Amino acid sequence: MHSVRVHDKNFELYLPESQILARVQAMAEQINADYQGEDVLLLPILNGAYIFAADLIRSLEFQPSLQFVKISTYGDSMTSSRQVRDSFGLNKLKVKDRHVLIIEDIIDTGFTSGYLRAYLTQQAPASVKVATCLYKPDAFKGKTKPEYVGFEIPDFFVIGYGLDYAQKGRELRGIYKPEEKNE
Ligand code: 5GP
Ligand code: MG
User: Fold this and answer.
1) Closest ligand 1 atom to 81 CA
2) pLDDT digits (tens, 9 = 90+) for 63-108
3) What range does the domain containing 56 cover?
4) Which CATH number covers residue 93?
5) Ligand 2 mean position to 50 CA, how many Å?
6) Other Cβ atoms within 10 Å of 46 Cβ, number
7) 183 domain-assigned
8) Model pTM greater than 0.85?
């Protein structure tokens, strides 16, 4: 089993690159079918969604607009927290009457994407949906579930494919989970 050490923890391979890319392709096909001929604004959430967004966008068969946004929340590195500390990119957005697709790396409690959904909805877009590479249904506390999900996963902390552990591990091609025995 392929494993890596990041900071103080050992992680083992959970989803190999080939499996992720096949699933992203299938998600893109669904999105292509749903948004054909529409004016679509893609909003990947930095930092984590940048790799997923890059793969997804290159399999789209329409011409979306793209604006990265960032929403930072308070909290430590391995838990999601519930307070928006900082954001950028949000006030520039022109979303009225447009179809907006938020792109997330992972949806845990759903706080981040829920905040953005609520923020955008006030500005009368044609629609707002969420596409996420990973989704933890057991941790989700939001109102609206993500419309496009790559993989549903149990409630453990994953890294790789853009996702970090205290800013390390984003470059890993696969997605990794903590090893059972960690020391
Ligand atoms: P939520 O707001 O849905 O609770 O969490 C969303 C954000 O928390 C994600 O965009 C991600 O930055 C971070 N996050 C949640 N779960 C994980 C995880 O398992 N691994 C990593 N690296 N980040 C996570
Ligand atoms: Mg994130």
Assistant:
1) 4
2) 999 999 998 776 555 555 567 777 788 888 999 999 999 999 999 9
3) 3-178
4) 3.40.50.2020
5) 9
6) 16
7) no
8) yes
